[in-house]
Structures are given as structure tokens and as C-alpha cells.
Amino acid sequence: PSPSTVTVTKLVAQLSASATEMEVSNISDPPWPTTGYCRIDSEIIKYDSTVSGRLLELTRAQFGTDAAVHLNEAIVRESKFFQFGWSQTPAVDIRDPFIAAMVYEKSNLVSIDRFIKKPYSGEIVISATESVPITSNSGEIVFLEGQNPYTGVDYFTAISGRAISDAGATAEVNSQSASYSDSIRKHGLKEVKIDNRFFSDEDYAQRIANFLISKMENGSPILDVNVISMPRLQLGDRVTISRIEQLGISNRDYWVIESKIEYTGGVKQKLTLREAS
User: What pairs with residue 51 in β-bridges?
Assistant: First the structure.
């Protein structure tokens, strides 16, 4: 959900391994949820209520961690537990989570403490890290999803996989374009637009644009191939075609630029290949 945030605070007294409540320096600014999870050192703890600087009704040693003694002034890191499902199921080739607060910040502001992925669903636990600044007893707010109103920066968290019936990916392009007169004279005008919310700044978008231009400014043969065996190739794979006499192909490399998989009692895969430059 948006916005989703985490923050940090500190213990103000030692916490025993069996304690069922803890006293912390601040849970009002920024405000902590009345129920939730937190992490201290390597232990994840569930709390079911709060009152005046205390987290109460603690359930210790969550998500396979061990209950332990935690010293005074240990960092208490807010954690978020999410269960998720897929819009199309079952899903395979599930990627690691993409978290903007981990990818684009100089110091990781969040950590992935638990990530379980299954074809129909999964779960993830994300915690703030000890790199999150604490100023005058107030921990900085870290956004997992949503726009930081003070900086205007958008943060995102995403998990992706491939549905068993996949019609390929299409992308409307929203960015900048570049052209070369020689290429236009030979092959006509080509424009690529990419609409991608993970482009957080112009410099990063320009790097992607320059890469695409270098690969696409000169025309390259495109092949559509029907695969009769079990699907093994994925988008971005590079393959070598040793020989197709009818097309005059001999020992040429191709990129897999589109993959379509259908399941109709058997698995069918159709690949679109582009000659590697």
C-alpha cells in the first residue's frame, strides 16, 4: 500500500530474552503503528499494542529468529510484514524484490529479512537498517512505497515473476529520443519510448537511452522461432544459430527480445530473436 514507511528508535533499558514489553525513546514522532513488528539486532519481535513510549504484548523470536538479550540504546528497527499474490498464477522465474530505498540510496535504508516466493503467493519482511539517521530522538522516515512529501522523491517496492501463460511484455515509451542521420537515411526513423516508474532521474534514463540507441541505430534481422521442446530460454539470453540455409545464416548470434509461453495441455514457446551486433 502507498504510503508504506519504516523508521527507527532506541531502547532506553536493557531487554531480557523473555520480556513482554519494551521501553523506547520515541514512538510518537514519527508515530509507530499500534500493532506491528520490529527488529533488534538479529531478533524480530511482534507487538500488539503501544502506550506512552512502550511497545507492549511482545511475541518474541518471530520468523525463525531467536529471542535474545538486547542492551540499552540498541537500535529498534521498525519492520513490515507483507503477504502477496500474483495477478496471473501460477508464476515462475520470480525475481528478488526491487526496493528503491535499497537501490538508489548511498547507504541501504532497509533490509530484506525474509523473502519466501511460491507459484501462487509469497511473503516478505522488510526492516529499517541502522543506517537510518536519528536526530533529537526522532528517527528519519524511510519510504518503501509512495512519495516523500519533503523531497518529492517517489519510492517503489516491486516483486515480479513470469506467469505460466505469458503473452510477452509491451511498454509504452515515455522518455527522450536521439537520432542519427545516417541511420535514418538507411533504415528510416526509429523512436523508442519507455514508460517506467523506476527511472528516478534524468541521468539514469539517459544511460538506458544511450544503450538502446547503440544497439538499435543500425537495422538487424528479426526472427520468430517456435520452440517444440520444454522452454529453457528467457528474455535477454544470447543464442547461436549454427546454420539455416534458406536464410543464409551461419554461426550468428541472436538476442531473445520477446518470449511468449502458452499452456494448452502442453507447453508452447514462441521466441523473437534479434541479431547481435
Answer: 54
Nearest to residue 47, comparing CAs of 64, 73, 72, 24?
A: 24
Q: What is the pLDDT of residues 120-146, one digit of tens each?
A: 888 999 999 999 999 988 999 999 999
CA 83 to CA 143: how far, in whole Å?
A: 18
Tell me how far apart the alpha carbons of residues 124 and 144 are, in angstroms, rounded to a whole number.
13
C-alpha distance from residue 24 to each of 1, 68, 142, 258 (Å)? 27, 17, 19, 53
pTM: 0.59
DSSP state letter for 132: S
Q: CA 214, 219, 222 angle in degrees (round to 5)? A: 110
User: What gap in Å lies between CA 158 and CA 218, rounded to an integer?
Assistant: 34
Residue 273 contacts residue 222 (beta carbons within 8 Å): yes
On the CB side of 105, CA atoms within 13 Å amount to 21
